[in-house]
Amino acid sequence: MNIEQLKETAAAMVAPGKGILAMDESHPTCNKRFDALGIATTEENRRAYRDMLVTASGLGDYIGGAILFDETIRQQTLDGTPFAEKLRSAGVVPGIKVDKGAKVLAGHPGEKITEGLDGLRERLAEYYELGARFAKWRAVITIGDGIPSRACQAANAHALARYAALCQEANIVPIVEPEVLMDGTHDIARSYAVTELAQRLLFDELRGQGVVLEGIVLKPSMVISGSDAKQRAGVDEVARETLRCLLNTVPACVPGVAFLSGGQSDEEATGHLNAMNGMGVALPWALTFSYGRALQQAAMQVWDGKSANVAKAQKVLLLRAKCNGYAARGEYSESMEAAA
After folding, report:
1. Which pTM was predicted?
2. CA angle, 216 as apex, 213 and 221 as ends, to 5°?
3. pLDDT in tens, 284-311
4. What is the spatial distance between Cα 48 and Cα 76, in angstroms, rounded to a whole number?
């Protein structure tokens, strides 16, 4: 394990004003989004779409890392450059999704455990050779009647920690993602309680597995009301409660916290991040973004599977990246959206 290399990689991923582009959708997820827009669900179109993303001029101004899918890291851009190499040349660290998805947790109806530890050491070695310098593993925590259980929280925290230790062994920075789903009718107080426990258990397990915390990036969900809650908390309350949760759970030595958007709209995710960074609270870690749909969806709609639309789609992508890059500094303004 090269600790200095891990630290340098993590710092580059969450450099000031930069965040992470999550473009690691599985085939079914990517195809579902294509279907909704009437785009043919072919490997060629997935490659062309991801080519549009990574070849956007100036992407590295606001993006420090990009999470790839297994298919993508093995592919080349339309001009024949491996995707990982193209990202590196743009100043973007290439990463890779390595989990095998969330499956039903035995004995716990309505809850899931993320799988993929078997054979992970060998897969990480291969991904390193293919150019990946960080990885992502997503755990899923659902809030509902009587859930999440302590067993579900603990099992997912343990799996995240084992994954993180294997990553660092391979000189790959682990993104650890304990996602508390936004689905449900729960209020922000319930979201806080579940999120705080998930993060406490996670860091207990990370320490237990000997993970070097200076060489990880945390990818949490925000402390936010359920999407179907009768009264949803406003931007400032979400920002305050999320910061309170992080300050109570995340060690100061962690280099960065990169939020997932978790079903929020583009502007909502940007606004919440900006509010947190604009509160004047001294934070020990970088507070930034690791968004998927909140960065991509508008650009995908403009692209629409047509090469003639690439330049327009890239402008939309770069606008969203710029808005979030400014939000990572607490300098975002809604007037920036006028460029759309």
Report:
1. 0.95
2. 110
3. 999 999 999 999 999 999 999 999 999 9
4. 10
The single residue of 25, 111, 177, 196 carrying the catalytic annotation is: 177
CA–CA dist 84, 94 (Å, integer) = 5
Percent of the chain with pLDDT over 70: 99
Q: Known catalytic residue: 219?
A: yes
Q: What residue type is 31 in one-letter code?
A: N
Contacts of 337 (CB under 8 A, 6+ apart): 267, 323
- Ramachandran quadrant class, 2 (left: phi over 0; alpha: psi -120 to 50; beta: rest): beta
**Active-site residue flag, 177:** yes
- Nearest 5°: phi and psi at 229? -65, 145
Map out the domains of the chain as residue ranges.
3-339
Nearest residue to 143 (alpha-carbon basis) of 178, 105, 110: 110
73-96, pLDDT tens digit by residue? Answer: 999 999 999 999 999 999 999 999
**CATH class name, domain 3-339:** alpha beta
Amino acid identity of residue 113, one-letter, is I
